Amino acid sequence: MNEEFLQYIWANSLFRDGDLATTRGERLRVLRAGEQNRDAGPDFWDARIEMGGVVLAGTVEVHLAGSDWFRHGHHEDRAYDNVILSVVGVDDVGAVTSQGRRVDTMVLRYDERCLEEYVYTRGAPVVPRCHRRLREVDAGRLGMLMTGYAVERLERKCEEVRSLLERERGDWEATLLGMVTRFWSGNVNEEAFSMLAGVVPFSRLARRRDDVFGAEALLLGCAGLLETGAEDEYVTALRGEYAFLAGKWGVREMPATCWRFARVRPTAFPTVRLALLAGLLGRSAFLFSSLVEAATAAEAMGVFDVTASSYWDTRYRLGVPAGKLVKRVGRMIKEVLVVNALVPFLFVYGEERGEDQYREKALRWLEELPPEDNRVVREWQRWGVSPGSALQTQAILQVHHGYCLAHRCLQCKVGHEVFKVRRDEGES
Asked: Which of 147, 168, 209, 352 could lock onto 174 through a cystine, CB 3.0 to 4.6 A?
């Protein structure tokens, strides 16, 4: 047990209501546990308790042991003079303010099942760490919490949009191209595409309408891949076009070593993905309006119905002939792009313009898309959570990365529901 656990029990009123009393035997009732303070000063502000028929308002301090009050120097700190209750795990010494006033002390009583669950989750080898009791959480309540976590994850992604919008000096079309580029690939080359989004001059590219060849030269050149392939007439032409654009716009390029080809399916090679991206960006005249006007997630996915230029029908790498196959954007990548690029972009667009219909549409798209299939989601499914949409799988990813991996079980609302289950078992 630690102080954080006791603070959690107090903050969420998981203590035993029936036998609350001070160490002097005075019965008390907690009307409001207070607002937890993460900065210097007492642990909880604006608390209210009723004791002896009198309602007291002030702050509350929580310690493992009463002697911590003196060990932390609270008896000399005027910031603690307004403490109305000292809550402790062990009563060894009473608390006194800097003015000499004795502070009433209460030993915090809670069901041992809560502590048992807390100790287990802290050391659980798998995530979610609260998996043992996850099936017992009310499904309706869990669904509400997951919606909140989906929005929390969306807000984090929106920061990427805002940052890119600032870089592009308020150019929405260039910002959209940048977001699409960041999430154009799967996990293997995700970081490389994110780096590429930082070097491509999207505002200039957006003004070159119906120029797939120019977009292809710019993307492959900025990616550092034009010098890595075998020579043929098309490659020579791409190099010449890139040299012209690079000199005109002063662009810089990435090291070719950033890109991974090993253990990647040929259809997912970075060169193929970049050629497909060029097919989209080179015809970007209607990309922005198509997104904003799309009514459903399916329509939004249709924005990415593009093919690579005919050169790539018989290529996976520059200058290396292969069997014929028209290169298209697959359904899975389209769904990834809607979830990670289009939804946060549309959300910020609506927010900046004060038009709620765009934000509502962005959330609706997440509900329309099927649940994502990845290792994290499958782990939650193993413990009885069955997401029905991308909105719910986004929530799972937020809980996993923001709380499970960081051992923030006490700050997690899902964890709170599990602790409540354990507490209620003890009361039944």
From this structure: 168
What pLDDT does residue 295 have? Answer: 95
Q: How confident is the model at residue 162 (pLDDT cuts 50, 70, 90)?
A: very high
Structure tokens at 5: 């656990």
List the one residue out of 301, 303, 272 whose CA is nearest residue 286.
303
- Write the pLDDT tens digit of every residue in 330-353: 999 999 999 999 999 999 999 999
Paired tokens of 323 = 């069997």
179: CB partners within 8 A, 6+ apart: 160, 161, 164, 197, 341, 342, 344, 345
Q: CA 398 → CA 145, 177, 301, 360, distances in Å?
A: 12, 25, 23, 20
Determine the Cα–Cα distance for residues 248 and 243; give it in Å rounded to an integer: 8
Q: Are 184 and 273 in contact (CB under 8 A)?
A: yes
Three-state SS for 79?
helix
- As a whole number of angstroms, the distance between CA 185 and CA 12 comes to 43
Contacts of 293 (CB under 8 A, 6+ apart): none
Look up residue 236 and give its amino acid: T
Q: Going by C-beta distance under 8 Å and a sequence separation of 6 or more, which residues neighbour residue 87?
A: 6, 10, 60, 61, 62, 63, 105, 106, 108
Beta carbons within 8 Å of 196's beta carbon, 6+ residues apart: 181, 219, 222, 223, 254
- pLDDT of 80-130, one tens digit each? 999 999 999 999 999 999 999 999 999 998 877 777 777 777 767 778 888
Q: Are strands 95-96 and 102-103 parallel, antiparallel or unpaired?
A: antiparallel
Give the whole-number percent of the chain exceeding pLDDT 70: 96
3-state secondary structure of 164: helix
Q: Which two tokens stand for residue 264?
A: 């990647």
CA distances from 160 to 136, 165, 172, 365 (A): 36, 8, 13, 19
Asked if residue 419 lies in contact with residue 141, where contact means CB atoms within 8 angstroms, the answer is no
Domain extent listing, the chain: 3-110, 111-166+370-428, 168-354
Strands 44-51 and 83-90: unpaired
Cβ atoms within 10 Å of 82's Cβ, excluding its own: 13
Closest-CA residue to 339 (of 192, 182, 193): 182
